[in-house]
Amino acid sequence: MPNFEITTASAHDLTMLAEWAHEESWNPGLADRHAFFAADPRGFLVGRLDGTPVSCVSVVRYEPGFGFLGFYLTRPELRGRGYGLRTWQAGMARLRGRNVGLDGVVAQQHNYRKSGFRSVWTNMRYQGHPADAPAAPPGTVLVDARAIPFDRLAAYDRRFFPADRDSFLAPWVAGPAHVPLAAVRDGELRGLAVRRPCRTASRIGPVYAESPEVAGALIGALAAADPGTPVAVDVPDVNPAAVRLVERLGLTPSFETARMYTGPSPDIDHGGLFGITSLELG
Predict the structure, then answer these.
(1) Cβ atoms of residues 212 and 244 within 8 Å
(2) Which among 33, 137, 232, 282 is placed 20 to 30 Å from 203, CA to CA?
(3) Which among 15, 13, 9 has a CA at the least distance from the CA of 40?
(4) What is the C-alpha separation between 188 and 177, in angstroms, rounded?
(5) Burial annotation 236-252 (CB, 10 A radius, 16+ → b, else e)
(6) What would you report as the CA-atom Rg of the chain, rounded to the nearest whole angstrom?
(7) Beta-carbon count within 10 A of 170 CB
(8) 180-200, pLDDT tens digit by residue?
């Protein structure tokens, strides 16, 4: 009988998981693994069949009451044999007792519901070359977010995410080839967005802003930094202003997921959330 075991992923394994995600058309960031591994080095599980990786899941612990699940994959030729389910069960055991979030692809949402998850909003990935992006509002300047004291960035991020995640946020802002922009007015943060290179469209996430005008200025400025490459933003429909913005910019839908939780929907600033950070870690 084949030997199947589930182990904690190595740093090298995260490169493999990104390749698997690329094959699923998820378009992961080229350097995501650096921030992902820093967030929770024990939070990535790999199922191995006779030593060969065949399944995976990420189960990142943020604080005692919250966790996030992603990277749930089984190699296509081995699906339907229970390896993915056993990996899922091991992952959920690691997050037992927490409110667990995930961004689920359409094909798996019914399975997630059977496991106790419920949908709270839909993320639609909008992609393309922004047209006629607005300028920053009067008095608002866009600056390199790496110049902002980190405690201010972390406090701002906490408005839009259910838990503190300093160990993730620091390498996300300062990651290789990542371009972070902050909107500042009267000495206060009014927006934050990060662009990262991917195999196809560059992904922009998160996108936080006090208004559609600030969000549009951030997206436009990040797109202009590499005008030959399209950008993609995963937009939550819980913020209708965000949907209207990306449609006004001429971006088009290309990929859909659902934000789901096992417990109550966390109390975050939905009105300022114009783009989620990542599908894998929330």
Answers:
(1) yes
(2) 137
(3) 9
(4) 26
(5) bebbeebbebbeebebe
(6) 18
(7) 16
(8) 999 999 999 999 999 999 999
* CA quadruple 159, 163, 166, 168: dihedral sign: negative
Mean pLDDT of the chain: 96
pLDDT at 103: 97
Which two three-digit tokens encode residue 265? 């929907």
- Tens of pLDDT, residue by residue over 148-184, are 999 999 999 999 999 999 999 999 999 989 999 999 9
Q: How far apart are CA 5 and CA 235, in angstroms?
A: 37
Structure tokens at 120: 């709270």
The length of the chain is: 282
157: tokens are 């991020």
CA 28 vs CA 24, 221, 238: distances in Å: 10, 21, 23
Distance between CA 117 and CA 255 in Å, rounded?
20
